[in-house]
Amino acid sequence: MKITVVKTVKIALSCFFLLLNGIVGAASSEYKLGPQDVIQIKVFDLRAGSGEAHQWTAFDGDIIVNAGGSISLPLLGAISVNGITVENLGKLIAERMQARIGLAELPSASVQVTKYRPFYIGGAAEKPGEYEYRPNITAGQALTIAGGVYRLTPSNRLSFDRDLTTQHGEINLITRDNVGLLMREERLNSEIEGRIKFVLADKFLPMASQPEYSNAFKAEELLFEARKSSLDYQVKTISETKMALAKEIEALDKKSQSIDRQIELTQKDLNQVRDLVSKGLSVSTRQLAAEQNAAAFENTRLDIQLARLRAQQELGKLSRETIQLQSKMKQEAITELAQIQAKLLQNRAKENTAASVMKIVEQTVKSNGGLNSNVSYIIHRLSPEGPKTIFASDDDLIEPGDVLDIKLTE
User: Fold this and answer.
1) How confident is the model at residue 125 (pLDDT cuts 50, 70, 90)?
2) Residue 266's domain is classified under what CATH number?
3) DSSP track, 98-130
4) Are residues 67 and 133 in the same domain?
């Protein structure tokens, strides 16, 4: 009798889960779970003693698949569900329950998707954005939900014309700005390389006759000559000062040689006076005068040596100033060049953006907002095997997480 009851309960549970899966929908049996899906899990097992069905209420409630494609369950912990079907997830949960808790028999586990992850519509749709998924929805139905294709109205046309004018103006401003920046870049390169004259690079020669290039070149040429003249003047001034110091050192050297001869003669005279004084043939006052004379010449020699040392130090300082002056100007040019190149990159990005906006606006206007255009569908789908691009038709099914791109063609 007990065995019959257990079998009856098992049959009842099986029927219950079959009915539950039928409610969810046979079309979703092969549906593969992914981030943002909301699921419910029901787990039952038969108690060995009473043969009664026991529901594990710990799994009750909505469970959201996280961005990493996993769920976290009581008793079982984290489970990766990305890319697996609800049927396989139910089997996986049942097996883990039996292994973790030590159940005698495999429990019955059912997984139901209560809310699918959204899909997205972009491109030439009237209302692009995120939409809630509905089972068995087609590309054509999805476009209808998004308000159909975008229709160009007179007010929109006026807005597009303004956008085109604005972007044209933006590109013209960037182009003029780039001309000046490119000429400045050339001038800075000339300064860094130490060129004597600023000349245009070969790549700019075909454009040299254009007024904007010609004017920008002349402005940078004048600046190059002014900066070079300023540097040359400062270097020349330092060079002249160095030449004067060199002549001063030369004069001091000659004066030092003359003093050395005077000291030599004075020393001989002093030695003779000392000899005479020691023999009593001369008075000591003469010796004192000779010694004072010798000391005076020694002091003069020390003054000359000190003056020469100072002149030599000043000469070395001026040499360093020349190097520092040239290095400073080169470093300033390098710093400014980096700023110019960064500005050119920024302008290039702005120009590309403006050109892209113009292209989109022109294509929209050309297609007349779908009035005389054919609609095509492109589905971008992220599958376990990787991203897929599908060229679809009206009747092709959309899946949760898809990005439906609406295109208009002539």
Assistant:
1) confident
2) 1.10.287
3) HHHHT-SSPPEEEEEEEEPPPEEEEESBSS-EE
4) no
